[in-house]
Design brief:
By secondary structure, the protein is of the alpha/beta class. Helices cover about 40% and strands about 10% of the residues. It has helices at about 10-20, 35-50, 80-85, 90-105, 140-155, 195-200, 225-235, 260-270, 280-295, 295-315, and strands at about 1-5, 25-30, 55-60, 60-65, 65-70, 110, 160-165, 205-210, 240-245. The protein has a seven-stranded parallel β-sheet. A two-stranded antiparallel sheet has the order 4-5. Helix 4 (about 90-105) packs across helix 5 (about 140-155) and helix 9 (about 280-295) packs across helix 10 (about 295-315). It is globular and about 50 Å long.
Length: about 325
């Protein structure tokens, strides 16, 4: 998945993504142009990137509050997750359904939300990636878990939803977008995993893994950790959907060569790689193909990843029959 401007990619950018066989995009950056303008953008993306009856996922970050990429006529102003967490679960489910219906009407079919991270109250505004912006649904795992499940059930009527940022950055000591060596104290059987468990049980088909390191696990960034993606997410939580990375354009992993990062991510158990910057995609794809030619187990895993993405697209209505 590669980033394109929410206000509309250039024809040259779309042509390049077509040449690279990019299968999904994220609308990156904010747009206040309204639903009609976004719909025009997504229609163009869909027309250019649909291949052999397989349409792209067109994603956005429509959480609410400080993180609402799409605004303007046709989009409701969504309050912060912290405010949403004060509502009853049925009320939040109704609103989430309405907001996701607006996304679907604009041609966005994948929301990289809800945030399932829990930020302890005493550290709320010290937590840079989540608490500072009121992106958490509350300060207890019980509140966060129940409200995450409500959002998943409400939004899933209209768009594909994504839990993030597994296994949690609610206690992280920095922001992975801006800093290297960000750590979080999450353990393998941590109570802070409960909101992710509830989101998976509610039917979330995507989970985004973080770029933070976990010293009480294996010390690796979650996006390169077999323990995080296979043992904990696939194994303990029983998740069988798409494991997507946070953007590899972030500072936390920017010192890892793109080709190396791509191979590490897929080897560790990732399904879909996200980079808001398109420039390294060719190198990443080449490295994955080279590895697959010489390592049969890796090749089999990549084929399974492709099938899993196609199954997710099929469930989202993005596959169509093509006449021979």
């Amino acid at each position: 998945m590669v980033g394109v401007r929410s206000k509309g990619p250039s024809a040259a950018k779309l042509e390049r993504l077509q040449r690279l066989d990019v299968g999904s995009v994220i609308l990156d950056g904010n747009s206040s142009l309204g639903r009609a303008a976004v719909s025009s953008t997504t229609s163009t993306i869909d027309a250019v990137l649909t291949r052999a009856g397989v349409a792209p996922f067109i994603a956005t970050d429509q959480e609410g509050g400080a993180v609402q990429r799409l605004t303007g006529p046709g989009f409701s102003r969504i309050p912060s997750a912290l405010q949403q967490g004060r509502w009853s679960e049925p009320m939040l489910r109704r609103y989430a359904s309405a907001w996701s219906q607006q996304l679907a009407a604009a041609g966005a079919n994948l929301n990289l939300a809800p945030v399932a991270d829990t930020v302890p109250a005493k550290h709320a505004h010290a937590n840079q990636p989540i608490g500072r912006y009121d992106r958490e649904y509350g300060h207890s795992t019980a509140v966060v878990g129940s409200h995450v499940a409500a959002v998943v059930r409400g939004e899933s009527k209209h768009v594909v939803v994504t839990l993030k940022h597994f296994p949690g950055i609610g206690r992280a000591n920095g922001n992975t977008d801006l800093a290297k060596h960000v750590t979080d104290p999450t353990r393998q059987h941590d109570r802070y995993l409960e909101p992710f468990r509830q989101g998976v049980a509610a039917g979330a088909p995507f989970v985004m893994v973080s770029l933070a390191r976990y010293p009480r696990l294996d010390g690796k960034p979650a996006c390169f950790s077999t323990m995080v993606m296979k043992t904990m997410l696939r194994g303990a939580l029983g998740f069988d959907g798409v494991v997507i990375s946070d953007s590899f354009h972030a500072a936390a992993v920017r010192d890892v060569p793109p080709a190396t990062a791509a191979v590490r991510f897929f080897r560790a158990g990732g399904t879909m790689l996200l980079d808001t910057d398109a420039s390294p995609i060719r190198r990443m794809a080449a490295a994955v193909r080279t590895r697959a030619r010489t390592h049969p187990d890796f090749a089999a895993a990549i084929k399974a990843d492709v099938l899993r993405v196609l199954e997710a697209k099929s469930a989202a209505g993005l596959l169509s029959m093509v006449q021979p």
